[in-house]
Design goal:
Helix content: 10-25%
Shape: globular
Largest sheet: 6 strands, antiparallel
Number of domains: 1
Radius of gyration: 14 Å
CATH architecture: Roll
C-alpha cells in the first residue's frame, strides 16, 4: 500500500471486483470509510470511479469535470463519474496506492448520491 495514510476522501488505485466476482480490475476508487473507523478495521469502503460515461446518468452519479478548480487534487487524469450505487467493502491489501484527495466540497456532493443509493435521500435531490 502507499506510504501516505489512506483516509476518507482518498482517491486510490484499488483492485476493484466485478459485480459477479469473476475477476478484478485495477481502477480508481474513493475511500468512504470514516477516519475514526479506519485504524480499527482491515477493510475500506470504496466507491467506484470511471472515466467511461454511462449513456444515461443516474441520480447516484456525480460527474467530476477536468476543468473543475478542485480536479487536480484528486489525482485523476480524465473527466470521471463517481457511481455511488457501486460501493464495495475491500481488504486494505487491495489498495495499491493513493492518487490524491477529494476536497470536502466534492465529498459532500458524492455523499448526497450515496444517500440516494441507500434510500436515505429521494432521487430528485440530486444535482448534476
Amino acid at each position: 500500500m502507499a506510504h501516505r495514510i489512506v483516509k476518507r476522501g482518498s482517491v486510490v488505485l484499488v483492485r476493484y471486483p466485478f459485480t459477479d466476482l469473476t475477476s478484478t480490475k485495477v481502477r480508481p476508487a474513493v475511500v468512504f470509510t470514516p477516519d475514526w473507523l479506519l485504524p480499527k478495521v482491515d477493510e475500506v469502503i470504496c466507491l467506484f470511479v470511471s472515466s467511461v460515461m454511462p449513456q444515461e446518468l443516474l441520480p447516484t452519479d456525480f460527474v467530476f469535470e477536468k476543468e473543475h478548480v478542485l480536479f487536480s487534487a484528486s489525482g485523476l487524469k480524465k473527466r470521471s463519474v463517481f457511481r455511488a450505487h457501486k460501493l464495495a467493502v475491500l481488504h486494505r491489501s487491495l489498495v495499491l496506492r493513493i492518487l490524491g484527495e477529494l476536497e470536502i466540497e466534492i465529498m459532500r456532493e458524492i455523499e448526497k448520491r450515496v444517500q440516494i443509493a441507500l434510500g436515505i435521500r429521494p432521487p430528485q435531490e440530486a444535482v448534476n
